[in-house]
DNA sequence: CTGATTTGCGTGCGCTGTGCACGCTATCCT
DNA sequence: AGGATAGCGTGCACAGCGCACGCAAATCAG
């Protein structure tokens, strides 16, 4: 079973990726100088992907507790990156949506990350890089991450 | 600049990998039924790679504070997975080393992870899987993770 | 139509992991 | 020898996290 050996190789690489410090360092670099920290980033990014929605929906998206998203949203609201708005269809619900500045910050964050990654792929043969990107996407999609 | 688009694609995949919940869930599955939790696992695994060494060295390896490793090591020591031993060469230093059970647990953990990954690669064309493993290793090595 | 139940949201509270500062012991340098 | 340095472990404060509670609005039962 040579796949098992591949599993070991991938496991080593994943070990580094999953470190807290790795995530903290990466997010720290990305958010440097921007009015958002490593904790607000995932919420902001998820909101950009999902569009206007409730904190509970965002919680499922980010993989955190509902109340945590609420607190982070409040923080981001104070920073002026998102705003709350009563749901016109359901007056007990509160919609979270990006402000213009929030949209700009998300765009900048995504640009920085994409650039960072593209730079590290700079010396790769184009076909190899493309294959890796596709492979990673596939691996994450149906990998051991339910 | 098409690399930039690749960067965006990879960024999306990384976003999921870097989630706290992803790591917690994966480590939870791996350590299920074993006398080690998601916090002890990195320390145990690093100790297996590095061999007998001090907590400070392990801290650099894992990317945590020295005192945190000390506490986790104490926890693992209570569980019987590692033991402390005064460094014969330097009597103020304390060596951390795996017990037999600790070695067995690490082996089981690595086996589980490798199996998990290998399973998710089951349907992949062999060459594609191999290319992905190599790509991931390379990407992690000289990627944006200093 | 009215009262009870459910749903969604925000906040108070306790828990836990983390890092810093401190004290102690052993080693190294002068 | 004696002061400076290095290595460990622990007390402490801080912050993120999830649970439980209370309130407002909507839905359901009768």
From TrEMBL, chains A, B:
Residue ranges occupied by any HTH marR-type domain in the UniProt entry: 11-141
GO BP field: response to stress
Pfam families cross-referenced by the UniProt entry: MarR_2
Record bears the keyword S-adenosyl-L-methionine: no
Sorted UniProt keywords: DNA-binding, Transcription, Transcription regulation
Transmembrane segments: none
InterPro entries associated with the record: HTH_MarR-typ (IPR000835), MarR/SlyA-like (IPR039422), WH-like_DNA-bd_sf (IPR036388), WH_DNA-bd_sf (IPR036390)
Top-level taxon: Bacteria
GO molecular function terms listed in the Swiss-Prot or TrEMBL record: DNA binding; DNA-binding transcription factor activity
Protein name per the record: MarR family transcriptional regulator
Gene source species: Streptomyces tateyamensis
Lineage: Bacteria, Bacillati, Actinomycetota, Actinomycetes, Kitasatosporales
